[in-house]
Design brief:
The chain has 463 residues and is of the alpha+beta class. The chain is 46% helix and 6% strand. The protein is built from 20 helices and 8 strands. The strands form 3 sheets. A 4-stranded mixed β-sheet has the order 3-2-5-6, covered by helices on one side. Helix 4 (116-126) crosses helix 6, helix 12 (283-292) packs across helix 13 (296-332) and helix 15 crosses helix 16. The chain is globular and about 95 Å long.
């Protein structure tokens, strides 16, 4: 074999330590950020907290951010070079499973050998998982929400969904109760008593099972009534809400990242001034780093100075990005802030990313574990995101609004003749909202509202 030298020219994105630090800070919650800043103050002599009476601070080191109102000039901060999270080339790995459903599923995505395209699909699926563990949007909507450049078809999305549904907890990402139970049954040993019949029941006879029509199930399956017992016991042993076993950790207290107020008929968005102390570089040690010492001491001080500058720059970028995203969300969801869930507009990560000129992974990070203090209370950023449902006027409405309308219909129904899921779908259609009966049932179950047969002759409190 003849040996030869070849010269190849190419481009490759390298994640510098500074970029990794910026991404890590962006994803931190307010509590984690305060702890990170305190650690930096204790370990880096170049950093110092600025007291209120310290006077002016050098612009380079000051973390104050000018909070814009709606007519403020648009801020520009392009992180489009940041790679998407997940996949075999992910740059961030966690040593142990984090708490909470979202964090736990994301951790599993990062540990799964997905291709880059499949990892993007999995992360898009994750953004549409409800608190009960079900997928709250259609595969067509998942396809439309994929990052630019990902042209995956419905078959590819379905394949990733099937892998997703076999994450722990089994059945997460299911679209219906039957699909959730079938996934769980698919992992049972083949010699499990009643397994074959249990699959038939989960696939086609859950309504009869819930209503106690066992003879009807037996006739449809062509077996004796007694033969159903093992299968019925097996189905009832399954978890109808896959996320029920994973408690979302409630923090001891929540520090809102952003304050939203309404003054003089306008909405104002500003960063929480209590979020973190203002920082600057200590001028005395900065001078020493330049000409006050020699040898190893100077090198050490210069390293601290460089680290301090990188931290301040990352914190400023985090604050600006957070404020931009919060300002866009509040502007988009003003009607929700004024009227509640029923006025929630559809919103997905890609829409925010395109409007602000950022990467979707940046929007995903900045909306994780972040909160806004609003006149409606402290609300998590992700609550403002909701998939779109079709309407007769072609404008579309959000899934959150649809759930609110379903709650309102049930809350005002005649309890002696409660509304069936089909009737609710008809009433929504009359109001201009196209929602299938099975979608109504999924939303109703997700809100822990029993079916019409169980609501009859008694009123329920819709929470």
């Amino acid at each position: 074999m003849k040996q030869a030298l070849q010269l190849r020219i190419g481009q490759q994105l390298t994640m510098t330590p500074q970029m990794q630090q910026a991404i890590r800070l962006l994803q931190m919650s307010a509590v984690e950020l305060k702890a990170e800043i305190q650690t930096a103050l204790e370990s880096n002599v170049m950093l110092e907290a600025v007291e209120d009476d310290d006077g002016a601070v050098e612009p380079e080191s000051d973390l104050d951010v000018q909070e814009p109102e709606w007519d403020a000039p648009e801020m520009t901060l392009d992180w489009s070079s940041a790679p998407a999270t997940g996949g075999s080339d992910a740059t961030e790995w966690q040593a142990e499973a984090p708490e909470g459903l979202y964090g736990y599923l994301r951790w599993q995505i990062e540990l799964t050998p997905f291709t880059k395209a499949d990892a993007q699909i999995a992360m898009t699926l994750l953004d549409s998982i409800g608190e009960d563990g079900y997928l709250e949007t259609t595969l067509e909507e998942i396809k439309s929400a994929l990052p630019t450049g990902n042209d995956a078809g419905l078959d590819e999305i379905t394949a990733v969904l099937h892998r997703f549904q076999r994450f722990d907890p089994l059945g997460v990402g299911a679209r219906t109760l039957g699909e959730c139970l079938l996934v769980q049954l698919g992992e049972k040993p083949t010699d499990t008593p009643g397994l074959a019949l249990a699959r038939v029941i989960a696939g086609a006879h859950l309504d009869d099972l819930g209503a106690g029509r066992f003879d009807r199930i037996a006739a449809a399956c062509g077996v004796e009534r007694d033969a159903l017992e093992p299968a019925i016991a097996l189905v009832r042993s399954l978890q109808p809400r896959p996320a029920a076993g994973i408690a979302t950790p409630e923090p001891d207290f929540i520090i809102p990242d952003v304050l939203v107020t309404r003054r003089d008929g306008r909405w104002h968005v500003e960063l929480n001034p209590e979020l973190a102390p203002r920082l600057r570089i200590n001028p005395y040690y900065q001078q020493l780093a330049h000409d006050g010492t020699s040898g190893d001491d100077r090198a050490c001080l210069r390293d601290h100075l460089q680290d301090a500058r990188f931290l301040l720059k990352s914190l400023r970028s985090r604050a600006q990005t957070l404020l931009q995203v919060a300002t866009f969300i509040v502007g988009h969801q003003r009607e929700y802030l004024e009227h509640g869930d029923i006025a929630m507009r559809p919103l997905v990560l890609r829409e925010v990313a395109e409007a602000l000129g950022m990467h979707e992974s940046t929007i995903s990070r900045v909306t994780t574990n972040k909160y806004l203090h609003t006149p409606r209370g402290v609300i998590e950023f992700r609550h403002f995101f909701s998939s779109q449902l079709g309407t007769t006027d072609g404008i579309g409405t959000s899934a959150t609004s649809a759930r609110a309308q379903i709650r309102r219909l049930i809350a005002t129904e005649n309890t002696r003749q409660p509304l069936s899921d089909g009737r609710i779908a008809e009433l929504l259609a009359q109001a201009g909202l196209r929602v299938a009966r099975r979608t109504v049932a999924k939303y109703r179950e997700g809100m822990s509202i029993p079916p019409a047969s169980e609501r009859k002759e008694r009123s329920i409190e819709c929470k």
